[in-house]
Amino acid sequence: MSVMKIGFLDIEWVDLLDVLLLAFLLYQIYFLVKGTIASRIFLGYLLIYLLYLVAKAVGLELLTTLLGYFISVGALALIIIFQQEIRRFLLIIGKSTNLANSRFFMRWFRPPTVSEPATPLKPIVDACKSMSSEFTGGLMVVSKNDDLDKFVQTGDSLDALVSKRLLLSIAGQYSPLRDGAVIITDDRIRAARCILPISENDEILTSTGFRHRAAIGITEVTDAAAIAISEETGRISLAIDGEFYANISSAELEEKLQDYLMDASKPRRRDNGKSNNHA
Asked: What start-end ranges are recorded for coiled-coil regions in this protein (predicted)?
């Protein structure tokens, strides 16, 4: 294998490949934590590690020893600090390598795509339209492929057919189930008053309420879609793949849900041009 000599360094092509792969991995990690508090911790830890490498190369033994102890302990601390980001990273890998969602599997082993999604959208959209006109707040999660049992267990189990009347009753002013989220799977309302993870993305406007942050949060860790209706403005918002579409009409809501729930083989997209973080 050919060797490049730069000064006192002997660099082989495999070394260049190693550096490029490491740079790519670091970029992907930074992209994953970008916009969160964890990104600042990641950059700080990276700077300390670079200082450790410089001190080791120069021969500063005392500083190298102290930084070495810090880095060895810091590796465990990073696992604790970045547990949510690590979980997101593993979820992304799992979704991208999921056999059931691969194009080959969809083409040869899945039945032909039907013209309507498994979840009936009309009663959901009609309920959202009524809640919007009456300034009734609400939060609904419509599942796609991922299992939402973990979040269903945080609420009150219903297991009832999806209907406009039932959704409006749950969201009613005097309903004991109005707080929290309603989780819908296929044609069933599985549970109400469910607790969802709150998004910690720093790029979300500070004026965004907890209901809308919860809608974004559940779509960051699962492939479900979340609908939030503002109690103050009556605006309908939709969260998909961590992207937030604010102040959309009922027709737009139905269209986006239809497209997203029907296209099971389509990879998760980040359409920044269409997203809007205003609640």
From this structure: none
d(CA 220, CA 240): 8
Q: CA Rg, the chain, in Å?
A: 24
How far lies 9's CA from each of 2, 6, 55, 130, 195, in Å?
14, 5, 18, 71, 56
Q: What residues are paired with 182 via a beta bridge?
A: 140
CB contact at 8 A, 185 and 197: no
DSSP letter assigned to residue 201: -
- Domains of the chain in sequence order: 3-95 (no CATH), 121-262 (3.40.1700.10)
Q: What is the pLDDT of residue 7?
A: 52
How is residue 118 written in tokens? 């498994």
Q: Which residue matches tokens 């990879």?
A: 267
Range name among 10-19, 109-118, 120-129, 201-210 with the lowest pLDDT average: 109-118
Q: Tokens at residue 179, please?
A: 């707080």
Average pLDDT rounded to a whole number, residues 158-183:
92
Across the beta sheet with 138-142, the strand order is: 156-161, 188-194, 181-185, 138-142, 225-229, 236-240, 243-248
3 three-state secondary structure: strand
Q: What is the H or E stretch that residue 192 is in?
A: strand 188-194
pLDDT in tens, 43-61: 777 788 888 888 888 888 8
Distance of alpha carbon 78 from alpha carbon 86, whole angstroms = 10
Rounded-to-integer distance, Cα 91 and Cα 97, Å: 10
Q: How many CB atoms lie within 10 A of CB 277?
A: 17
Distances (CA, A) of 192 to 46, 119, 158, 198: 43, 17, 7, 17
For residues 3 and 47, the answer to whether their CB atoms sit within 8 Å is no
The number of angstroms, rounded, from the C-alpha of 142 to the middle of its chain's C-alpha atoms is: 14
